[in-house]
Amino acid sequence: MLVIDHCRLTWPDFVADYSLKVQAGRLCAIIGPSGGGKTTLLHMIAGFEKPESGTLTFNGQDLLPLEPAKRPVSIVFQDHNLFPHLTVTQNVGLGLRPSLRLTDEETILIEETLDAVGLRGFGARRPGEMSGGQRQRVALARALVSGRPLILLDEPFSSLDPGLRRDMILLVDSMRRKRPVTILMTIHTPEDAADVADQMVFVADGKVVASDEPSRILGGSLAARIAAAVSDT
Amino acid sequence: MTTLKLPHPGSLVAFAILALVAGGFIALLTFDGGAPSLFSISPYLGRVLAFSIAQAALSTLLSLALGVALALALARRSFMGREIVLALLSTTMVMPTIVAVFAVFAVYGRSGWLAELLAFLGWRESFSVFGYPGILIAHVFLNAPFVARITLDGLTRIPAEHWRLAMAFGFTPAQVFRHLDWPVLRAELAGIAGLVFLMCFKSFAIVLALGGGPSRSTLEVAIYEALKIDLDFGRVAWLALIQLAICLSMTVLLHWAFARPPAGHTIRSLIRRPDAKDRTLKVFDAVILGAGTLFIAPLALSVLMGLRSMIGILDRDLLRAFATSIGIALAAATVACLLALALASAARRQRLVLRSPRIAAFYDFLPDTLLAVPPFALTAGLFLLIQRFGDPATAGFVLLPLINGLAAVPFAYRYIAPHLLTTEERYGRVAASLGLTGLAKLAIMDWPALKRPLAAGFALAMALSFGDFGIIALFGGTELVTLPYLLYERLGAYRLDEASAVGLVILLVAFLLARVSGRLSHAGD
User: Which residues of A touch B165 (CB under 8 A)?
Assistant: First the structure.
């Protein structure tokens, strides 16, 4: 289980104070207005931002003293996930070994994972030759191949058009049914993930305002605020 | 009766430029003295060519090494005074070559700071700055900051996500270099190296003043000497043709190397780099920043020392030279902006209205070719042409703004052309439906978006012309004295105090103009 207890971060113009629990193996969708602290929450879990106080544990392990590379976490951003000078295989391989000296077994594992995200035979291509959706599939493959149990997706499909976005979310859903991974995903349009997420979290003003089943969040007292947040941008 | 339709001003300008260059060469080759055969000057030519290439290659190599190392160190570190180092680099980028020549004399000359320091330490060995040492010092001083700035800009365009990935994967400093820094360097360096090589290959003022003898001439200096000393127009023509061929092919190469889509993301990453903690790199960066500052700061400061002698040089000569320089710079900037405007609007018409991108590409390329035309050859040819029609004594007053203006066209063009394209894309159809054409279209549709970039181009062209020490070396004398010429005279007479004050005035004006230009081009973005 991921447990965040009063993790506090301060900037001159913004204060965040997060408390949240997510059961292992769940798919948790994070929604809220832009600038409300969704991305900061993920960056803190990944280790890019250090809270001044509070605790952060995953399956009982304290994450706060660990460097980003040592955490059981992999992350996918909205954009710029891939290095343009490396092939797809190499970009995925970075999740296994930053030195890119891959063993035969590792190369096979990469091919299988590419296959699983629907990119069979794309290994030798470079990111510049692929569509936005394909590039995000590569980034997903890298997160999966690293074998880290906690996967953070930061608006991973927001720059894709609605039909493709839905396909990608269904892909994420099918992936996690095959492996023991916990997924936190920030999204812009809550409807995209309402039926696949186990848990939905509303973040605003640097705080977790509500955390519950998606139907209760979307149908409850927050509905008006959520609608406002979505139409805001 | 058919009405004669006037061609577009841009086509006239393009034709005029080509005719000017061709006419100049024809005048040289057909001059009464008779052109010597290429064979008769070939041993001399070989020596000049070998020296031009050798010094340019060495200068480029050293500028790249220092510039790239400085950029990496500045990208990795934030420290007190970083802003000062960046300001120092920017100032050096706009420093006119003749002012750099003064700085080299002031620091490394016979009675310069280094000699004084060594004498103070009890070391009285004499050394000469002339030849390779002086030329390389001046070229690296002018070009390493340019390399550093462009490279640093490239490095700060690396997206923040890539730095977070580097942290998430636990990249070692070597892996950071391989996956983040190196791709940027590889993309930028070929173009930068080509540009620095071209600038050093064409170098005039630095090689003339610091070469220290006829055996150390670039082609540009050789053309000048053939003109000024030997009056050998045939030799001038041959040297100039060879210079033109080499520079033109390099320009074509560079044009292709630079013709790539602009970088998509411009948000600067303010993220702390994961390799900043590495001990070895800390030592390396400290050494580079220390060495770079030790090299650049004294040269830059030597010009500031001119403040001490400022009162002493305030005489009528200086004021007259100042007024002449400003006048020539204004005229040159007007020439540059008018030509650039005509060419850019012709390019736009071809690209967006007539849909012929090839002809548009020719108009885009023409300004860059002006970087390749040797100014002395063009001047000599035009001088011969003018001589037939008018008084040669006043030729300088006409040729100086014209040649300086032509040299500034590529810079003005780069400011103007993109804005013209944007307004046409936005309002072109409305203008066409209203029947707006010609000057009315320029005044109503383009002017609001154009005035700032035009002013920015004008200020930059003025800065370039104001500090230029090129063909003024031919025409300078009692009748015609610009500030850079005055500085050259004072240097030749070893009056370093007065030279430093004149150098400071030139640098201040050039810096101010470049600053105004930078402000104008960034405002409204």
Answer: 81, 94
